[in-house]
Amino acid sequence: MMKRCILLMMLMASMWPCGAQALEKVYTPKQGAPERKAICDVMRKYVRSMHGMDRKKAFLWKIETLKVQGNYACFEAHAVNPDGSAFSDANSMIGDFQQLTFLRKNRDGWWVVADLTRTDVPSPEELKHIRGTFPGDVPTVLIPDYWRKKLR
Questions:
Q1: % pLDDT > 70, the chain
Q2: Where is the signal peptide (predicted)?
């Protein structure tokens, strides 16, 4: 009986991190919330650096999905002009596709840990690379169904 009790306690202890993460609530920061603004600002900075965009070229995010669980976020959005019209920039294609990015928060704020933004379906080689580099600790509940299946 004692052995079973010890075995059960060891099993429960080994599952604790998974259980704790599953207990954390998934939520969407409301418009105007400091957390939402921080994520959007990091994404603007990230996209500008990735595409060599002029900092003076203003754009906003039309958010399709913004989900947060614990220290992770899934950000799906596309760029629009401040008036809401379609965004265009001669130096980039960011207005042409939807951004799909995963972020992690640490003591310094949010930062991008994976970018699955694409204009096409990944080739087998690209998919192998994505699987090898995608952070394994991103909560599964944040990953869109299409990618959840692809990342298995």
A1: 80
A2: 1-22
> Residue 151, class by beta-carbon neighbours within 10 Å (0-12 exposed, 13-18 middle, 19+ buried)?
middle
| Cα–Cα distance, 60 to 24 (Å, whole number) | 29
The tally of domains found in the chain comes to 1
Question: For residue 94, is it within any domain?
Answer: yes
pTM: 0.80
Residue 12 counted as domain residue: no
Tell me the two tokens of residue 149. 């299946």
Q: Which is it for the CA torsion 96, 101, 105, 108, positive or negative?
A: negative
- Greatest Cα-to-Cα distance within the chain, rounded to the nearest angstrom: 72
